[in-house]
Amino acid sequence: MSIQQTLTEQERLARLDPERLRRLVGLVEHDAAGDPFPVTGWDALVWVVGNATQAAVYYQLVYGMELVAYCGPETGNRDHVGYVLRSGAARFVLTGGVDPASPLLEHHRRHGDGVRDIALEVPDVDRCVAHARAQGAVVLEEPRDVSDEHGTVRVAAVAAYGDTRHSLVDRSRYTGPYLPGYRAVRPSETPSPAAPPAPALAALAPAAPTPAPAPLFQALDHVVGNVELGRMDRWVDFYNRVMGFTNLAEFIGDDIATRYSALMSKVVASGDHRVKFPLNEPAAGQKRSQIDEYLQYYDGPGVQHLALATDDIVRAVDVLRARGVGFLATPDSYYTDPALRARIGEVRVPIDELRARGILVDRDEDGYLLQIFTRPTGDRPTVFFELIERHGSLGFGKGNFQALFEAIEREQARRGNF
Ligand SMILES: [Fe+2]
Q1: Ligand 1: distance of its center to the CA of 398 in Å?
Q2: Cβ contacts of residue 377 below 8 Å, gap of 6+?
Q3: 108-135: string of b/e by CB count within 10 Å (b at 16+)?
Q4: How far, in Å, is the centroid of ligand 1 from the Cα of 87?
Q5: What does the DSSP 8-state code read for residue 172?
Q6: How far does the centroid of ligand 1 lie from the alpha carbon of residue 127, in Å?
Q7: In terms of CB atoms within 10 Å, which of 98, 266, 342, 416 comes out highest?
Q8: How far away, in angstroms, is 249 Cα from ligand 1 center?
Q9: Pick the CATH number of 34-189 from 3.40.50.300, 3.40.228.10, 3.30.230.10, 3.10.180.10
Q10: CA of 54 to the centre of ligand 1 (A)
Q11: Which residues are registered as beta bridge partners of 366?
Q12: pLDDT in tens, 295-320
């Protein structure tokens, strides 16, 4: 079955095609003709961080991202710096205040490092904004053209949960590296994890062009939002009405939540499932919910985790762990549990290999997925990453909620503490 779909600029640059995206992120066929709010795909995740200059080096050296553009005082932006990084089709923009009066500094003081803007590429900004406004969305920035020598981008922004926003970007008339105001960064300006060759040796042997290493992740899969108790359905309704997103079947409700994980979760997705937003709210449990902890430390609703789609989760975990990234530990009982083997069946990686790395498995009627979660990326216990390798499954690892927590309870029971 062929999928005729528009690719985002980033996807074309990353040489992804619809078939590859179907495997990586679960793209499905969708007729955009009746879509009230057509979305081509992710444009960028725009972060506010405490030190963008250092974070840009971190994401290059640790996550293997490529620095492609920069803005700051040298390019005429006296308020803040911005570093644009990419890995496959995924684009991060790291911003940090320079002027002591920059609003980004106040944003950071309140929230810490986090994602301020989940920017989406759309074919018709004005149509999207008109529909959003008619459905009661707060329009933060009216549609406007921004131009430089590379052409014109049309942008607008609507408010999402907390201080999070969605920029809407039409870059069909633009050829620059990111947005007007940014300049392209040459490869020589980017750090390399390998030590530079000694000058004498370099003179003897002319530098052979070294092929860029394959990216550790190729695309964004989903971005999860944490909202306040009782507000999840309101935001599900927002994405249904304002963006025409549909609800996916995956639902983590009271039944699991109150006994094990103390959260409730629903998932909304764009028509072709390119853009997927799970939304969590805390559930009343015996202990304090992880969502409550997030809401306290982010000082309100915000982005909880970003799932990075990879075609080789084993390599990604090995490389990231060697570079110092911490992952959540998975109890051994998860892997020794006969129920797990019965549940997951055959997967491409032997279970012992998964166990050695703490990688989780989930299976549904469409296939399976491998996933793992990092520790929080910054100082506060807020935003973190997930790595996800899909093999047909369109889910989000729901089975792991129950399996993980049941495995823990069995351990507790063996110790006589349950
Ligand atoms: Fe996730």
Answers
A1: 9
A2: 113, 383, 384, 385
A3: beebbbbbbbbbbbbebbeebbebbeeb
A4: 18
A5: T
A6: 30
A7: 266
A8: 15
A9: 3.10.180.10
A10: 27
A11: none
A12: 999 999 999 999 999 999 999 999 99
Binding site, annotated residues for Fe cation: 222, 305, 386
How far, in Å, from the CA of 158 to the mean position of ligand 1? Answer: 24
Long-range contacts of 11-15, Cβ-Cβ distance < 8 Å, separation of 24 or more: 11/41, 11/89, 11/219, 13/86, 13/89, 14/86, 14/88, 14/89, 14/215, 14/218, 14/219
CATH of domain 219-414: 3.10.180.10
Task: Report the binding-site residues.
Answer: 222, 305, 386
Report the alpha-carbon distance of residue 263 to residue 239 in Å, rounded: 20
Give me 102's structure tokens: 């920059």
Distance 18 CA to ligand 1 centre (A): 22
Mean pLDDT of 202-231: 81
Q: Which H or E element spans position 80?
A: strand 80-87
Q: d(Cα 17, Cα 125) in Å, to the nearest integer?
A: 24
Distance 222 CA to ligand 1 centre (A): 7
- Output the pLDDT for position 205: 52
The residue to which tokens 């909620």 are assigned: 401
Residue located via tokens 């939304």:
279
Centre of ligand 1 to C-alpha 348, Å, is 21
- Contacts (Cβ under 8 Å, ≥6 apart) of 239: 245, 268, 277, 279
**Residue indicated by tokens 């803040």:** 80
Q: Which of 319, 336, 402, 320 is nearest to 364 (CA)?
A: 402
The rounded Å distance from CA 280 to ligand 1 centre is 11
Rounded to the nearest integer, the mean pLDDT of the chain is: 90
Which range, of 7-16, 214-223, 285-294, averages the lowest pLDDT? 285-294
Residues linked to residue 69 through DSSP beta bridges, in sequence order: 84, 184
Is beta strand 384-391 parallel, antiparallel or unpaired with respect to 367-373?
antiparallel
* C-beta of residue 181 within 8 angstroms of C-beta of residue 50: no
What are the residue ranges of CATH 3.10.180.10 in the chain? 34-189, 219-414
Q: Compute, in angstroms, the gap from residue 59 CA to the centroid of ligand 1.
A: 20
The 8-class DSSP code of residue 201 comes to H
Task: Tell me how far the alpha carbon of residue 290 lies from the centroid of ligand 1, in angstroms.
Answer: 14
Cα(134) to centroid(ligand 1), Å: 31
The helix (run of H) or strand (run of E) holding residue 147 is strand 139-148
Say if residues 65 and 37 touch (Cβ distance below 8 Å): no
Q: What is the largest CA-CA distance in the chain?
A: 70
